[in-house]
């Protein structure tokens, strides 16, 4: 059985730290806590789980803090997590099985980070991330903000899900770091440009965000998943700004970097639907239903676009086109995914009554 060092950097995490560490029971053989300046009970709580607690002077550099934590690890593998992450019991059991069976030839294990959930507890947005790495590989973190683990070797894509349940967050922290770097005339990598654009978008600074997404794409050096995402976010910005032609242009641009994703197809359907072009909208929503969801996609995934959303929208399109039987069939497919949704229940009643009247008239 492999041994694992759990490495965390924390600050003012008294509300979530115990929840996270409790979920790691029997997984971590060693817990490394690096505190970057807590003013609450974070370190007091951490002491219940480990005596390996270290202070790190915050220098606006997440990679530096994470590398400091990794350097304290002594087990075969290093697991990193944030305090507002946790393992649900089913995923904890999967992790324990992985710990028993993982081949020592594996250098890195990826896991799904589940970010948001619907009212049924199903994952709506997720992203795949490198989470467990072999210590002897000496992988390093890069980037002061939105840091990433620079790594290679043999990778295993697991089906373990890490549940991200944010309780609090300094919404201005990351953008402050980026803008201080700009004031210092620091050069931005293509990745910096992309993540700074994300921060600008989160702060609803849409024109600036669009400018930096375009700067990022113009470098030609972006990771293809970030390229796809940037095109989608540019399209969404132009929808907000009522620039519908530009929204369509950028959405189509995403096809340059990879085969069409369900997210882009649903967005294309929405763009046509906005113009009451129901036949064209139905085409793109139909394409979305035919795509096979990639199992190893490392980018952000909107599960609705791969499941119920295109069917619900096809229901609307076919209804407007007078194809009520087809509309009913797609509503029923959507109902398989979201059985208690008020929209699908209303549609079910409406189409059953409509088709009953139509059938009796035909007879």
TrEMBL record:
Gene3D superfamilies: Spore Coat Polysaccharide Biosynthesis Protein SpsA, Chain A, Tetratricopeptide repeat domain. It comes from the Bacteria. Keywords: Transferase. GO terms for molecular function: transferase activity. InterPro entries: Glyco_trans_2-like (IPR001173), Nucleotide-diphossugar_trans (IPR029044), TPR-like_helical_dom_sf (IPR011990). Coiled coil: none annotated. Residues 5-130 form the Glycosyltransferase 2-like domain. CDD domains: Beta4Glucosyltransferase. PANTHER family: GLYCOSYLTRANSFERASE, POLY-BETA-1,6-N-ACETYL-D-GLUCOSAMINE SYNTHASE. This is Glycosyltransferase involved in cell wall biosynthesis. The lineage of its organism: Bacteria, Bacillati, Bacillota, Clostridia, Peptostreptococcales.
